[in-house]
Amino acid sequence: MYVRQYCAKIDEAARNRMELIMPELAKQYDVAEQLKAENQMEWVRQMNACKAQAEEVVKAELIYD
């Protein structure tokens, strides 16, 4: 397998994992559409925190492992 193909495979797996983790984290931290309607900046802050945490999980599972 070529390096480019391997990187593409890891990238696809990472994106798929992010798609699974993000909704779980948002639910866990109660980041809902209601918050988005009431306080957009807080919603963005919390979603960014969820994204950062999800990225750390993906890196630990797929890249550093």
UniProtKB/TrEMBL annotation:
Domain of life according to the entry: Bacteria
Pfam families per record: TnpV
InterPro entries documented for this protein: TnpV
Protein name: TnpV protein
